[in-house]
Amino acid sequence: MNHYFTTDDITDLPDWLERGRALAQDPISLSHLGAGKTICLLFFNNSLRTRLSTQKAARNLGLEVMVMNVGSDGWNLEFEDGVRMDGGTAEHIREAAGVVAQYADLIGIRAFPGLKDREIDLQERVLKGFMEHSGIPVLNMESATAHPLQALADALTVDQFQIASGQAGQAIPSGGKVPKVVLSWAPHPRALPHAVPNSFLRIFRRMPVELVVTHPKGYELSSWAMGELKPTYDQQAALKDADFVYVKNWSSYSDYGKVLTEDPSWMMTADKLGHARFMHCLPVRRNVVVEDAVLDGSQTLIMEQAANRTVAASLALSHMLR
Ligand code: CP
Fold first, then answer.
1. Ligand 1 mean position to 140 CA, how many Å?
2. Comparing 7-146+309-321 with 162-300, is the CATH topology the same?
3. How far apart are CA 216 and CA 175, in angstroms?
4. What angle do CA 115, 280, 209 make, to 5 degrees?
5. Residue 48 labeled ligand binder
6. For the domain with range 7-146+309-321, which CATH number is right: 3.40.1190.20, 3.40.50.1370, 3.40.190.10, 3.40.50.300?
7. Where are the chain's structural domains?
């Protein structure tokens, strides 16, 4: 059974990127794959892009789609085994996951972390609970630790843009300079999860790029995300000669879930961006994370990223349907 839980479920990334290029040109070319099948999308948290792009991708593949806001409309789920359920939880994950599988062939789930207890969040109880007890393939629509649909869309965007500009392509360019991709932390008033930077780094560490990460001290990401990468705390130095700048806020991982600083000098500006292309997963707070001139300027790729969310979901769902 094929889940799409992290980008590590992509065994052959160049093949996925190549098929993504074809799907971008002909989105309904795989409309036979999901015929007669149903996907149930369960949202424990808000969404605009993930909800709409996954529905669109599912329909492009011929799937019937059911969507439920479980966070507001469903029963509170229990994840512990062997407990007496006389508190706030009304349904056990064992029954909930099994029941959804009576109505659907695939499940998509969005379930954010609580950002209170790192060990609990790392357990990924919602996604892993459905993977264990539903018996059908599960799509991660952003979990506590990973947002693999966003990361795949971001990789598709850089790949396609490099091809369009004739600089690189799906493989390492022979003798040419690989693009420099910078992940830059930005300020934000709320504590945000690590799922986007985690998945971004997991997939871009496999791309033919020079990858640089910059953030203030205290915002170091997990070794799972970083691998051998070392962060630089000097944003200006990190941005030098960048080709793509990916801006994202996240809360502290070591002082788990805390906002340590809102230093506005880390906001992305047109001046700092230079000639680089700007990327952000959205939603974004204007003039906090990035200034208007960047979002409204000609170097932004945010709509290309959003468009590639449908391609990414199509690739993930076709992987799950095979
Ligand atoms: N980037 C992203 O996942 O957007 P939504 O939270 O709106 O789905």
1. 12
2. yes
3. 34
4. 105
5. yes
6. 3.40.50.1370
7. 7-146+309-321, 162-300
Tell me which residue has its CA closest to atom 6 in ligand 1. Answer: 47
pLDDT tens digits for 113-148? 999 999 999 999 999 999 999 999 999 999 999 999
Q: In the chain, count H helices and then E strands.
A: 13, 10
* Cis, peptide link before residue 283, omega less than 30° from 0: yes
Ligand 1 binding pocket mutation candidate from 281, 285, 308 (most atoms within 8 A of CB): 281
φ, ψ of residue 41 in degrees (nearest 5)? -100, 120
Could you tell me the distance, in angstroms and rounded to a whole number, from the CA of residue 53 to the centre of ligand 1? 9
* 29 labeled part of a ligand binding site: no
The helix or strand, by DSSP H or E, that contains position 291, with its residue range, turns out to be none
pLDDT in tens, the chain (322 residues): 999 999 999 999 999 999 999 999 999 999 999 999 999 999 999 999 999 999 999 999 999 999 999 999 999 999 999 999 999 999 999 999 999 999 999 999 999 999 999 999 999 999 999 999 999 999 999 999 999 999 999 999 999 988 666 554 444 444 568 999 999 999 999 999 999 999 999 999 999 999 999 999 999 999 999 999 999 999 999 999 999 999 999 999 999 999 999 999 999 999 999 999 999 999 999 999 999 999 999 999 999 999 999 999 999 999 999 9
Contact between residue 106 and residue 321 where contact means Cβ atoms under 8 Å apart: yes
- Give this prediction's pTM: 0.96
* Fold topology of 162-300: Rossmann fold (3.40.50)
Cα 174 from Cα 179, distance rounded (Å): 13
Tokens of residue 75, six digits: 């029963």
Ligand 1 centroid distance, CA of 52 (Å): 9
- Annotated ligand binding at 319? The verdict is no
Q: Is 229 helix (H, G, I), strand (E, B) or coil?
A: coil
